[in-house]
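STRUCTURE:
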């Protein structure tokens, strides 16, 4: 019985090695493609994505290098090659998913900034019209609030869209102008 079990283990290991040897180049290629995709996406939407994601891409690339080094050895351990390549691929997939999430969040923030800015402009315009139409009835405090609101509105308009933090500031200024 022990001998049979041992033989089954050897046969199973031989099959696993043959499979690993056959798929190793494909796994390496897949990891290489996914790392390239992640790098391209991060480069394209760099302003929307945290800088630390570059370290995650490097970690995936390091796993790919390990797979390639093992594959290039005199007697490659194909199980290790596949393990490193799959890990590289998995890390690259995670980076790409995270980068997409961050970019989409920045897009939502941009849309929110535009919406809040429009609302602030409309509120300012209404207040300005009211103050102009009822000049005798309005005290100087209301005119001061209107000037403050205009300053906040101008700050919101002039702030950029470079990073999610910029967008958050723009939204804050626009909301502040509505309150003034």
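SEQUENCE:
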């Amino acid at each position: 019985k022990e001998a049979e079990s041992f033989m089954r283990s050897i046969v199973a290991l031989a099959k696993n090695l043959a499979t690993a040897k056959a798929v190793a180049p494909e796994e390496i290629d897949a990891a290489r493609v996914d790392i390239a995709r992640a790098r391209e996406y991060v480069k394209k939407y760099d302003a929307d994505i945290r800088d630390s994601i570059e370290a995650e891409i490097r970690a995936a690339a390091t796993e790919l290098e390990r797979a390639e080094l093992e594959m290039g050895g005199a007697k490659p351990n194909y199980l290790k090659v596949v393990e490193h390549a799959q890990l590289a691929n998995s890390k690259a997939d995670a980076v790409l998913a995270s980068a997409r999430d961050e970019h989409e969040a920045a897009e939502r923030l941009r849309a929110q900034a535009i919406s809040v800015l429009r609302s602030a402009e409309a509120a300012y315009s209404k207040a300005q019209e009211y103050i102009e139409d009822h000049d005798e009835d309005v005290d100087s405090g209301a005119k001061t609030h209107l000037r403050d609101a205009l300053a906040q509105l101008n700050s919101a308009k002039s702030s950029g869209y470079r990073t999610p933090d910029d967008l958050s500031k723009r939204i804050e200024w626009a909301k502040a102008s509505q309150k003034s």
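REMARK: The mean pLDDT is 86.
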